[in-house]
Amino acid sequence: MMNPQLDALDELARRLLPALQRTGLTGREPIGKEGNTAPVAALMAQLQQANPEAGRAYWLTRGWSLLTWQPLYLAILAVHGLGRVPPLANLLQYQQEGMVAGYWLSGEMEAEPNLVRRIERAAAGLRPLLATLAALMAEAPRPRLRAELLADDLLVALERLAPHLPELAAHPLPFLARRWLAALELPTPPRLPGEDPRYLRQRCCLHYKRGDGVLCDNCPRRQQALAQRVA
Predict the structure, then answer these.
(1) Where in the numbering of this chain does the Ferric siderophore reductase C-terminal domain appear (predicted)?
(2) Do residues 112 and 77 lie in contact, with contact meaning Cβ atoms separated by under 8 Å?
(3) DSSP E strands: which ranges in 88-231?
(4) What are the backbone dihedrals phi and psi of residue 19, each rounded to the nearest 5 degrees, phi first?
(5) Residue 141 to residues 46, 48, 119, 130, 152: CA-CA distances in angstroms?
(6) What would the pLDDT profile of 90-126 be if each residue is shown by its tens digit?
(7) How far apart are CA 218 and CA 198, in angstroms?
(8) Is the residue at 229 inside a domain?
(9) What residues does 22 pair with on adjacent strands?
(10) Which of 32, 139, 160, 196 shows the greatest Cβ crowding within 10 Å of its Cβ?
């Protein structure tokens, strides 16, 4: 059945983030069905096999970020790109070879003219999905770390999408960041996107622990190392 608003979301996502594509219901086992832990277990096993040297902390951190990146970006794109509230409770995701990319979404994309209310409604649909994703992990990062990683990923996404979505560009980014963080009940870092030339993450993603890994440009460890050299 045709759904013009979901089609518009898919088109916007493909244009800005080619990996974020609506794939249709495939033969692969989807991530998102409550109680179905098999696809998440397969993802975590693939992460361990691909980078055994990186260690448990990296696998958990990477797994959580992979499970949550698509919902975060879809929420921002729907809210600020289309003026709609996405039906994220119905989101199914797909994983393959240690990556989560591709989704299926059904339901109505409801219009909401009030910006703050739109953020709050999208977050209300996002929160239970995030709780389900954490529950599907045999071992998840502890709650505080999950929240801090989510806050970082959300703020990086807002910063990344701001040049491409007129509504994001039309409002102060710190204002929107605070609205999203409050609606998702996530911690607010000392500095927000738009307050510095580039947002500095509060939590390290631990990519540097991989054999081929380095510190990310916005990694707090990189800034700490620079400060120590200056001192």
Answers:
(1) 201-221
(2) no
(3) 92-96, 99-104, 110-111
(4) -75, -15
(5) 18, 15, 26, 13, 15
(6) 999 999 889 999 999 999 999 999 999 999 999 999 9
(7) 8
(8) no
(9) 103
(10) 32
Cβ-in-10-Å burial (0-12, 13-18, 19+) of 214 comes to exposed
**Direct distance between the N- and C-terminal alpha carbons of the chain, in angstroms, rounded to an integer:** 62
At 222 the pLDDT is: 78
Burial track 20-59 (b if 16+ CB lie within 10 A, e otherwise): bebeeeeeeebbbeeeeeebbebbbebbbeebeebeeebb
Assigned domain for 218 exists:
no
Is residue 10 assigned to a domain?
A: yes
Using CB atoms within 10 Å of the CB of residue 65, give its burial: 0 to 12 exposed, 13 to 18 middle, 19+ buried: middle
Q: How many domains does the chain have?
A: 1
Report the distance separating Cα 145 and Cα 81, nearest Å.
29
Is residue 99 one of the residues assigned to a domain?
A: yes
CB 60 within 8 A of CB 51: no
Parts of the chain with a pLDDT under 50: 230-231
**Distance between CA 231 and CA 216 in Å, rounded?**
22
DSSP string, 134-149: HHHSSS---HHHHHHH
Q: What is the gyration radius of the CA atoms in the chain, in angstroms?
A: 18
Provide the residue range defining the domain that includes 19. Answer: 4-198
Provide the residue type at 85 as one letter: V
